[in-house]
């Protein structure tokens, strides 16, 4: 079974590479030092600092493994080459929520990078799926648990 491709923008790729570098170069050394100091305190069976450092080390190694897997299967969207005629991954889109007469701005990204609090929605989310392929002036309907929502596409631009 082939691993799922992780679609990333260049910004997302850079963020994950920086985090991986930080974990491997800085955090690993810090935790190794904490473990060394805790060992020097003697009996490890009742040493809370040692246990905490080992837990932190486990978490760091798990995150490193996760990041390496994401990056290994990364497919980077070249945002400068995105077709601005229709919505696709790597676009920033301004839509009008028809029901509330409210403008919203979203950046369409792969599911790995999605963060609704930052306005980054996944191409696999209900809204993302509905928007992909739409053009300025189109109105799309999104089926949500709360009912159908309509968005009119006002603008498509590069996300930079």
Structure notes:
- The chain has about 160 residues and is an alpha/beta fold.
- Helices cover about 40% and strands about 30% of the residues.
- The protein is built from 3 helices and 7 strands; from the N terminus they run E-H-H-E-E-E-E-H-E-E.
- The strands form 2 sheets. It has a 5-stranded mixed beta sheet. Strands 1-2 form a two-stranded parallel sheet.
- Strand 3 and strand 4 (about 100-110) form a beta hairpin.
- Helix 1 (about 10-40) packs antiparallel against helix 2 (about 50-70).
- The mean pLDDT is about 90.
Helical amount: 25-40%
How are the strands of the biggest sheet laid out side by side? 5-4-3-7-6
Q: Supply the number of helical segments.
A: 3
User: In this structure, how is the largest beta sheet organized?
Assistant: 5 strands, mixed
Strand portion: 25-35%
Care to give the gist of this entry?
By secondary structure, the chain is α/β, with parallel strands linked by helices. It has 3 helices and 7 strands. The model has no long low-confidence stretch (mean pLDDT 91).
Task: Reconstruct the topology from this structure.
Layout: E1 6-9, H1 10-40, H2 48-72, E2 74-77, E3 91-97, E4 102-109, E5 120-122, H3 126-131, E6 139-144, E7 147-158
Parallel strand pairs: 1-2, 4-5
Antiparallel strand pairs: 3-4, 3-7, 6-7
Helix pairs in contact: 1-2
């Amino acid at each position: 079974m082939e691993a799922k491709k992780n679609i990333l923008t260049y910004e997302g790729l850079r963020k994950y590479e920086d985090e991986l570098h930080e974990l491997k170069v800085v955090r690993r050394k810090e935790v190794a030092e904490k473990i060394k100091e805790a060992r020097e305190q003697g009996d490890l069976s009742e040493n809370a600092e040692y246990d905490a450092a080992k837990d932190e080390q486990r978490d760091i190694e798990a995150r490193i493994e996760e990041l390496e897997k994401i990056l290994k299967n990364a497919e980077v969207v070249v945002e400068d080459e995105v077709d601005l005629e229709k919505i696709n991954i790597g676009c920033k889109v301004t839509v009008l929520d028809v029901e509330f007469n409210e403008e919203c701005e979203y950046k369409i990204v792969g599911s790995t990078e999605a963060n609704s609090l930052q306005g980054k929605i996944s191409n696999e989310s209900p809204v993302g799926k509905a928007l992909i392929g739409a053009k300025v002036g189109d109105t799309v309907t999104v089926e949500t648990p709360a009912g159908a929502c309509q968005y009119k596409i006002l603008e498509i631009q590069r996300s930079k």
